Amino acid sequence: MSLEQVRAYCIDCFFGSRININELYVAARVSSRTLEHDVNGIGITYGEGEQALAILLRKENENARPVAQAIADQFGIPVTVTVAGEFQSVRPIPHISRQKIRPARGGVSIGHYRITAGTFGCLVKDNAGLEYILSNNHVLANSNNARQGDPIYQPGPYDGGTPNDEIARLWAWKTLDPNGVNYVDAALARPINAQYVSPDILQIGRVRGVVTPTLGLGVKKSGRTTGLTRGVITILRAYVKVYYPSLGSLVFDDQIVIQPSGFSKGGDSGSLVLDENNRAVGLLFAGSEVFTLANPISRVMQELNISAI
Asked: Which pLDDT score is estimated for 264?
């Protein structure tokens, strides 16, 4: 099997029903205590100088490494195991005074009038050349609980935003599906005045196109909570479970995983992830104690009919 086929096999083992995970337990000679409840991600990473399968755990499990070794022996590929913690869309948000900024730009506090606060990712355009603010569904569309035209505040409500700080109206979003597989957590808001927004990103400047994410790529972001941070893409093609307070655990596939742990914190959701040449890589939407998760920007553009960033 190819590495991609092994990835699909393990997703079935840990998250699906087509393959019995007991096959791996027998091969690993471990107890039948369920491991799948502690696995919250499968992806592709580097291991021992070559690409490897990555198994991500909510917490330490004594059966994980024997099972990983059984997978490695059965398919002849390296397998890594990492305790990632619980992936969450909404993490604790430090209470930071964030000012109203006009023109607003990427990296500043923003949010639907009924949420706490997230991050203004960047300005994007549709095929007609109209401009929109890009961020997450859970930042601009209140995790599906919104209507087109709802007010968007800058700064977000948690940072003191009020109706006097309305900067945009909710325009479009990709619905989050609690029962299926998700690929993006993304939404658009239409500025109420073109002079209220700027195409720049705080401490970064203008976006210079789009690039495909690769393992080992150095990236950066400007976010509401942690400002400008830098990290590295360590896992690609990640199939993960992410907890949403109002929706429960959602499955996402084909995600980007970034380290170190300090790359983002609560309130940074919606930040645009870029490489060092200011090319867009992904849209930050969740994280854990160890990793940050981002949607590939090409998929975000496809789902929301974005033609240019």
From this structure: 97
Sign of the Cα pseudo-torsion (204, 262, 100, 280, in order) = positive
146-161 burial, b if ≥16 CB within 10 A, otherwise e? beeebbbbbbbbbbeb
Work out the pLDDT band at 32, boundaries 50, 70, 90. very low
Helix, strand, coil percentages (3-state) for the chain, rounded to 5, are 20, 40, 40
CB atoms within 10 A of CB 52: 21
Cα separation, 289 vs 26, whole angstroms: 32
Number of helical (H) and strand (E) elements in the chain, helices listed first: 5, 19
Q: Structure pTM?
A: 0.94
Query: Tokens 């990103």 label which residue?
Result: 201
Sheet holding 122-125, edge to edge: 118-119, 109-112, 151-153, 166-173, 187-191, 131-135, 122-125
The pLDDT value given to residue 92? 80
Burial 205-217 (b: 16+ CB within 10 A, else e): eebeebbebebeb
Give the phi and the psi of residue 146 in degrees, each rounded to 5.
Answer: -155, 170
CA–CA distance, 56 with 41 (Å, rounded to integer): 5
In whole angstroms, what is the distance from residue 239 CA to residue 43 CA? 6
Q: How far apart are CA 296 and CA 301, in angstroms?
A: 9
Q: What one-letter code names the amino acid at 232?
A: V
Distance separating alpha carbons of residues 279 and 275, to the nearest angstrom: 5
List, in order, residues 6 or more apart from 193 with CB less than 8 Å away.
none
Residue carrying the six token digits 């360590």: 234
Three-state secondary-structure class, residue 212: coil
**CA 72 to CA 270: how far, in whole Å?**
36
